Amino acid sequence: MNKRLGYVLAILLAITCNISVHGGDPYLNHEWKVTYGTLSPLGVPQKVILINGQFPGPRINGTSNNNVVVNVFNQLDEPLLFTWSGILQKKNSWQEGTLGNNCPIPPGANFTYRFQVKDQIGSYYYYPTTSMHRAVGGFGGISVLSRALIPVPFETPEADHMVLLGDWYTKSHTELKKLLDSGRALGRPQGIVINGKSGKGDGKDEPMFTVIPGKTYRFRICNVGLKDSINVRMQGHTLKLVEIEGSHTMQNVYESLDIHLGQCFSVLVTANQEPKDYFLVASTRFTKDSHVATATIRYANGKGPASPELPKAPEGWAWSLNQFRSFRWNLTASAARPNPQGSYHYGQINITRTIKLVTSAGQVDGKLRYALNGVSHVDPTTPIKLAEYYGAGDKVFKYDLIKDEYEPSPGQAGQDKITIAPNVVNATYRNFVEIVIENPGKSVQSWHLSGNSFFAVGIEPGRWTPEKRRNYNLLDAVSRNTVQVYPKSFAVILTTLDNAGLWNLRSNSLERNYLGHQLYFSVLSPNKSTKDENNMPDNELLCGIVKDMPKPTPYKAN
Fold it and tell me: Where is the signal peptide (predicted)?
């Protein structure tokens, strides 16, 4: 059997789902029961969200173009939605799972998500978007392998591990929600968890991973946290970066990696050291008091505990910025398709629209809010996508409350008046758009765009001006779905809005997201054809003003 095909089959057989084929791409069928449970991620018993009794939730493993079916039974006492961060949902924002797209699953009910990982490979994760649920679990990993005949730019690893890490609060999600609803900030997290655990680093922890001397392993590392950037390193071993959020990268070797909120990196690690235990170390970055967690990696038949001396994390964000600039797209590697990634020359496309977004924080009626260009997003009771589809958008929201150009009041950066409303930008289908995100604040931000990959062509200190374009990386910036923005700096992304639907640009910080740091791009195809966008699914949950409205005429297949 072809070695790579054997690797794919081994992973598929390891997942807790049924696999079926209906005359085309395979279907991966999952059934999830979402419940509460009591665990102690930081040593303190607390209520967490379990999926089929697991925390983190079950990993979704598949291959490019697989169809994923997830039947979610909501056994919580609150409405629930899941999003599939980084899965592009081609023509299918109906499955995006945000409150702007979908009605939540009521308690005691079930809903079936159906989507295809069309023309994608890489490392991603899912999480609940309702309330403050992701602060207490409900998240899990997604890995998408290349098809057997598509070359991959590294040898098949001995094993493929998912590492979900992030900062953690010991308060319940209801307590955290009350803090934000009362106008206060969440404050500092209490620690870090790695795959739901926080090692003590005293040599008594059970190993999280076991390795065979001389073998190479793939670790897919995602920051699923709520507030902080995380630095990751491994005692005595280097990390060879091979993939970021669906793109093969130039295979640079690092002592450690900064992974910001919402980001997923794949690294190769070779077990080439003395056979004993070693620590995988994760620590918060850019915080006054750093939290640290460890996970034990054990060599098979090795002898001896891990050294108590942990490798130190880098300091300052200038180091982090320089590392970002070292990440490069592998122009000769194939991704989901057999053609090289570099055959798409994004730097030669004319920009048709520039949108400059300035982030801010302020008080509205004495309560904390976060805004983009002066508008703090709030989800209407009728999802924006449904309101559009039913022709009732004007009863729910207004397009373009923000302008493409925004200048804060002189001397008042980040302190302008804030309007609370649904923040929806009317975008033109297939436009090539330049999006600038300015962060005048004092902490690092991280942003995700759903439905579209983008090229993160530049991050610089200061404010953006058109002259900054001369510094863009227009050759081999990594195609990805998240970007960080350092304090008093800006980031620039380029993307083609060629995926018809409603797509969320959001802060990966739970506090910022919940209090308004997000917007939606409405990308409507003028053809109203299923060639461009899927019709509303038959099982779509309805709520708000569309609940009792007659169903619109479906799109035609042209």
Answer: 1-23
